[in-house]
Amino acid sequence: MSKKRETGPDTLRTVAERSDFRRRSLLKLLGAGSLSLATASVAAADTGSSQDTTWAFITEASAQTISYEFVVQRSADGLAVEFANAGYDSPTGQGIEGGTWPAEDFITEVNDDVIHAGGTTGEGFGDAFDVTGEVVAIWLEDDNEMWAERDESTVIDSDLFVDEPPTPEEWPQESTADDETGQASEPVNSIWSFITDESAQTISHEMIVKPSDGELDVAFTDAGYDSPTGQAIEGGTWPAEDFIDQVSDDVIHAGGATGEGFGDAFDVTGEVVAVWVEDRDQMWVERGGAEIGDDLLTDEPLEPSEWTDDPVSASEPTPDFTESFDSGTGAFHSGWRMDTMTAVSAPTSPDSSGTALRTTVHGGDHVGGHGYIEMDRVIGYRPDELHQRYWVYFGENADPTDDCKAPGFSGDPNRNLSGTTEPNGYNGWSARGSYHATSGGVEPGYYVYHVDQPNWWGTYDRWDVTLQRGRWYQIDQYIELNTPGENDGVLKGWVDGEEVYSRSNWRWRDTSDLPVHAFWHDFYHGGNGTASNTYYIYTDEYQCWAEQGEML
User: Distance of alpha carbon 148 from its chain centroid, rounded?
Assistant: First the structure.
């Protein structure tokens, strides 16, 4: 169970030190004296919000006297500026308090809607102000040796910083604050980072993201600055642990694991509504470079299905069989080259029980692993009609260079067809899935061995839909075997519940002695071409319904 981080002088010092490291990293990234041109992401705490806030202007220990000024304009909350004590020390242990140098520190009411304030400090000390209103401009005489903080978070909003002392008479200007709440609008896009202490071992983290203004997206990214220990903050560098799962149209579940002073980062479009970290004492969370509070943090790992507004219909029949791949290749009754498959804890599908099956396709090879879940073992017989479902996730570097095979339906294993054997209605059939390179991702389909195929190899029927890499999709497949000797066999396909493929003139068999033998978990690169690089494919939560018609 995670312990809540206690707030005290030592903790506040740590926060200030982290802010200093972030500020140094940003200055290094952006270039000295160029804050006014910066393009760094901005946290809500880094904007000129109109809430009552404490603003601090802090110097390096090596700094001589440095001047600063800022302009505050009236917001819906009102307008007021007062000298204050920040309540915490600078990273060098000096006080942060405004008004201690009467000859330099000032607060001037320009008009009923604008206050101009500022002062001078140095040698590691800082000045602080309690502000009601919207800070609209900040000038620092030397931004290499002074920085601004708002409620203990380093201000990195490039739009607030000006190169010359401000002319307060230019304000008030049209506010960036929301007309109803008086609070600055939060950016839809932001960088969320999960950062560890240097002494941390592997620590896991998760978050739930919901749409904002109808927009929802999460991508791995580089935070653009280093951790306090100088390590990188970048998401997606540990494919076995880092994940982004599209749970539904209104929920994304993302997370990963990191440690030893490193961090993970995500570019988020939407609203983060819940965050879990395995150890709050050795991992903290930042948004736009500013550490978040405890409001979003939960004590237990997140259950993404609890956050969706569009749950799966409760009227759907209970599956005849479900396999979660918790035991990896132990799920299969037979198969070959199963050394390429293993159970992993992430990424897992939205319906997962906690693990997924990772299949590795090695560069220069064809085989990604083959396994069978045999129908007579799991439902007691071999049906003529089967609806099956599984989840699939193509890794970020999945780049097929040929037509490829994927899971699907298998006929009798003793007469099953692949390779160079032509079907004749009596010697077997198959209707595996397939996947193909397409612009923007991977295109699914079927790869079918049937009586009417013109060549010894099977027929590819593509679904004309693109699966993006790095997210989960629910794949549904339906087969109704043909009447022996007739071209009335049915194949259908769905992606995330939407029908994308249907064909009803297949002829697989000329005898009734060829029912559905198994779910054939088969990933094979080619055709003739081998994989140009090593990549991963994840599958999870296989379900099937026999002789019950279509489930969607």
Answer: 30
